[in-house]
Design goal:
The protein is mainly beta. It is built from five helices and 28 strands. The protein has a single domain, classed as Methylamine Dehydrogenase, Chain H, CATH 2.130.10.
Length: 397
Amino acid sequence: MKPRLTAFLTALATVSVAGAAERDGDPLAAWRNSPSVRAVTGPAERHTIHAYFNTCPESPDGRRVLFFSSTTPDSHRGEVRMLDRASGKETVLATNINCEDAHRAACQQWASNGRRVVFHGERNSEWFTAAVDVDSGRERVLARGLLKGWGQPQSDLVPLYGPHWKPGEHTGLELLNVETGEIRKSVGVEAIKAAYPDWWAKTVGDKPVQVFFPILSPDLKRVFWKMATPGNGNPRSKGASERYGLICYSLEESRFLFMRGKWSHPAWHPDGRTIVEMGFTLFDSSDGTHRRVPGLPAVRGDHPSASPDGKLIVTDTTLEGFGGKPTEWGIVVADARGTNHVILHRFDNSRGARSWRRSHPHPVFSPDGRRIYFNVSSDAWTRLYVAEAAVAARAGE
């Protein structure tokens, strides 16, 4: 038998076995058989950073990938770009963007079911939130003196907050409609104080405080955020603000759901109710009750997120517990029911962008659950990578 035919039949058999195993109840099957792992873009000398584990860089239709591109050593200045997955062609959507750090870059994300891209940044000493129409390339600055949290790619709604180092009058939660440009005040700090007076007295006291980093649930019915007190006024420093707490609020019912003293790294589960947290821990956002997924290793699990069907949890973590060095990181995919997991990729993450806040991998699933995107800082440049499951190869052949 010819070598190429043998290789093809072997690959076909692997895909068939993986597909059968997945159908038989093993959601990890497609990730066990040497998935492809590669950089999303070519080897140009630049940073290519996807924003965060709360948002996917791939468009809802799977055709495009969004990233922040920078040639400065610290990646604090650059462009928002979009790559066509089929052709590899890149389109510059926004230029001349100064960001806080290389950790979240311009907080770029998809909106309006992929018709728009929303981001924030600084130009001419002014911080702003803007949206770009993908087809026309037209940019609109929709909010000045306000930064964006995380909305959902299918929606026009994006949460806003005042800069955490200097919020000015913008201390509460505000909601932006990127279609109409309307900004609506939603939850004020006095309401938070009234809802949690004991926690407020103990933690906040008389300090100035604001809503910081709001994240909308997949069904847009709920939102959680942390609180912040302005610090030294320098947005590019660890002393920019003091952050604390996690507060969950029902937008649908206009009421507070629960408050937790620690933020960690929360992400919404696709069910719109559960919050996925570090250490393979799941919180019920209705009341804050939580449980740890059983049988999984005690990894740090720095930035966890769930697959679109909720069957898997992916996280980045340092690999000392797996025999690695402190500088070695891995992408771990786990069965959300517990016990089973796969180390998808291992890499040195000690280099990359020389930002005051490091860029972390921030793994997140694609909309169809067949790809996982994450950042790698193994050389002078932080680069966006993608791991693709073996079963997904059928769709592209």
